[in-house]
Amino acid sequence: MEAPLMHWIRAAVPYLAAGAIGVVAGRLTATPAIRRLHAQVDTLTHRVLRDPLSGLLNRSGLQDAYTRAAGEPRQVILVDLNAFKLANDQHGHPVGDHILSALGRRLATLASQHGGWAGRLGGDEFTVILPTATSATAEAVATAATAAITITDLPTGPLTVSGSAGLASVPAGYPWDSALTNADIALYHGNHAGKPVVFAAGMTYPRPETDRRRARDTTEQ
């Protein structure tokens, strides 16, 4: 199913265009008016589907991208930063934002190299979606995504933050929520293994539920 916000935007475009045409019917300014309307819709779409800090897709944008590739198998990679909250608390939000932006740029490059999409779910949790990629490719992308990020221009000295990753291979038509859950389960195990982990049948979250982080439940920022 198409992401609700994207569905609303696409559904609204014909009505907005019809209204613009009605207003300018018979006038030579009709074409410029329609162009302006489309530009406004493009701007709105970008704002609705993009994370303002990283510039990547947000949760709705990721779901839309995933849905558009529904007819083919996909690799879903979930990435988070280790001890990010501690670094954010000790060095301040500007440094935290700098780290998130650096990770966002890295993921955008990796996704682009493999014809996929990168996005931020919220907080320090990011997702890469790779259509038709092999498991080996996804693992290589996950390894590159979690490499250490070092900030050197701090009064207290260099700060290095690494990441963890969970991967899920999903067939065509597989639900978005289920794909994200599988990758999130693998991410939990990746946090403890110190390397990217691939979801396998039968893999579960730990118990009790309060002992784990679930990326799909993170409040988007």
From TrEMBL:
Residues 72-203 form the GGDEF domain. PROSITE patterns: GGDEF. CDD domains: GGDEF. Pfam families: GGDEF (PF00990). It comes from the Bacteria. This is GGDEF domain-containing protein. It comes from Actinoplanes sichuanensis.
